[in-house]
Amino acid sequence: MAVTALYVHVPFCAQKCRYCDFDSRSFAPCNMSVALDTYFEQLYARLDAFGDAGALAQIRTVYVGGGTPSLAGERLVEFARRISAWCKPVEFTCEANPESLTAELATALAGVGVTRVSLGVQTLDNAELTAIGRIHDADRALAAITTVKDAGLVVSCDLMCGLPGQTDLSWQRTLDGVLAAAPHHVSVYALTLEEGTPLYRVACRDESLEPDEDFQAACMDAARERLSAAGYHPYEVASYALDGHECAHNIAYWTGQGYLGLGRSAAGMLDAEDFDRLAGLFPDVLARGDAYRVRLVQRDDAATTFDAEYLSQREAAAEDLMLACRMTRGIGPDLLVRSASVIAADELAAACDRAVELGLATWVPDHIEGHAGRVTSKDVIAGRVRARLAPTHLGWLDGNVLFELFWGLA
Known about the structure:
The chain is globular, with a radius of gyration of 22 Å. The chain is of the alpha/beta class. The two termini are 19 Å apart. Helix content is 41%, strand content 20%. It has 16 helices and 14 strands. Helix 1 links the parallel strand 1 (3-10) and strand 2. The strands form 3 sheets. A 9-stranded mixed β-sheet has the order 7-8-6-5-4-3-2-1-9, sandwiched between helices. A 3-stranded antiparallel β-sheet has the order 10-11-12. The protein has 2 domains: 3-251, Alpha-Beta Barrel (TIM Barrel), CATH 3.20.20; 327-407, no CATH class.
């Protein structure tokens, strides 16, 4: 489990969105500058500690998320420069919101190793943007896409469906506008009302604001149809990309790669060997002899307190199977064979068979030698046949049921 990915969390926003329950905070402009300075000094120190410990040597992807990293301006540029001094990632993503991304910032980021910007567009309907608390408008979002492309960076757009007041027509207009702007990558998410958020509280009083799951499914179908027709292939449950522009960082999460988390609320995942090697970076976390992997979440700005979740080898295998179901390719034959070494083959076969029986997944042969009959889970798990278990259209729309089948093996 090589540590190949680094996630950095920047928990600051000009204004918190009404649906958001991520760790972020906002300040008056005069206080924001001081807070950002202090926070980034702590990031610099933590980054150097990772580098000195040799933890960044194999990093292939970096993702700076939030919050709104673009709000940090020149601090973000300096931080990216420092990351690039420790490693040379093949993909380096920074999240941005349209209102805080300037041409100068995009150009400066490109100059210090950033390769990709993920823009929070959400919708191109101004009334819908207002309803969810976004502070940019449609014109600013479209201008930001152009700004990123002009800087020579790959651009990804996040879109949301099921927003208050959203209709089939407004969703189609959003898809039309985004496709006309021609980003390299698009992610489509269904709005969920998280308890404690302003939108959740309003929806508790007005049920009409609750997302309609049938409408969301129709929007997801419409997005897949339109994006696929325009040359964007669906490679993951929520993501579409032009050839060669898939998000390598997210793929690392879904394929069991180790990753480091940097910043408050950032999560990392290490196998037991890497955790033992880097234990000095997590002073309050105890080693556990029965742990196969350790998931770590930084709980304060100064990286002195962490939450730890310990996974057994069986739990890690079940998680790998579940996360593979997020990918269009599904669960590959090598992962199935490997999982059968820690999960009883009959249990694993039963989960695969149930996924097929429910119409959530189907067997797609990779390469079959000396086998002309029907693909069975037992043959694949035993290594007699090479085939992958790929999500169907229903498995894509109703992924939680499919995910639970395999996490249930933990």
